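Blinded run. Sample ID left blank on purpose so nobody reads anything into the name before looking at the predicted structure. Input follows.
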Amino acid sequence: MSILENNPYRKDFPVLNQIINGKRLAYLDSGATTLKPVTVIDEMDLYYRLETANVHRGLYWLSENATTKFEATRDKVSNLINSPDRKQVIFTKGTTESINLVAQSYARTFLNVGDEILLSQMEHHSNIVPWQLVAEEKKAIIKVIPINPQGEILMDEYKKLLTPKVKIVSVVYVSNALGTINPVKEMTTLAHAAGAVIMVDAAQAIAHKKVDVQDLDVDFLAFSGHKMFGPTGVGILYGKEALLEKMPPYQGGGDMIDVVTFEKTTYNNLPHKFEAGTPSISAVIGLGKAVDYINHVGIENIKKVEDELLDYATKRLSSIPGLKIYGTAKNKASVVSFGIEGLHPQDLATLIDKEGVAIRTGHHCAQPLMKFLCVPATCRASLSIYNNKEDIDQLYDALVKVKKFFE
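Blinded prediction complete.
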């Protein structure tokens, strides 16, 4: 039987047992945050209930146990993305902080006046604003890689932009607003040939497809725990060791130091040089369980399920008169952004909530992309491993009902 009919993973996510507005919950906002399996919830509860202690500091059992679990997550993440070494995996608060770390530590150190940074037309604000801040300070120039109406990067234009002035390329792997899967491996090869380093925002990719940093050969890669069945407040920055070694610390404080005197401070080795202060210990431990869950299901199986869901959702929603889908790239992840002629996206989202359907509406932190699409906002249904045919049918029925209401 197709997983669209009988999804064996739904039972792992207790949130889905709820009734919302008298209806079964159809959660279609995984692009904003994924739901959490019970294994992640239980592990975090265990830490706070019975295993609370700080890490890297104590010689007593609780502290050593917390440290062991904390550092085990680093190993799990390192294996998940095929990092050459665990010390290249740095814990942050999330994708946003990871990008800011590279902008402030690498770009701020090595950019010069007139150097160029390339960003794509479809970037999330978190992959725009940090570069603007450092570009303004260093008098560098940001240039935009254009896309076509289907939401695909124009590779010929990208190649033209890759002059010797370009020092940094920062691009999203999977667009949060369109679902487009960008050709990151090819873009990386081209960036390196032009003498530039490349940063990849993998927040929307990490739980949907295999991400292999050695195969991609990216210089930096960022993602968030809460986009991959883990908790909020924790994320990852992967970086090539040679680059991380050259970068100054992003923040100062405990754990990132070697020796401190009032005259001079020396810094800790990787990865701790970039992990100042007490981390979000329970979140890191929870992230480890999230990686376990992804490995349990299998990333290829996740992709297969989501591709099937995307195909069904695209066909079902396309049959609604007046509905337009934004983002029709050939290579696409499980995101359907849409609008219905004559109806404001906020009205749609508010009214279908009454039918138990949770979607996202707005500019999706991608205002430059919305301007390119000539719309103020879109509705977005984003799918994950726990969705099924009934969720999509519930969305379809709710949209048809709202459309008839306004006719």
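Unblinding after everyone has recorded impressions. The domain at 42-296 is CATH 3.40.640.10 (Aspartate Aminotransferase; domain 2).
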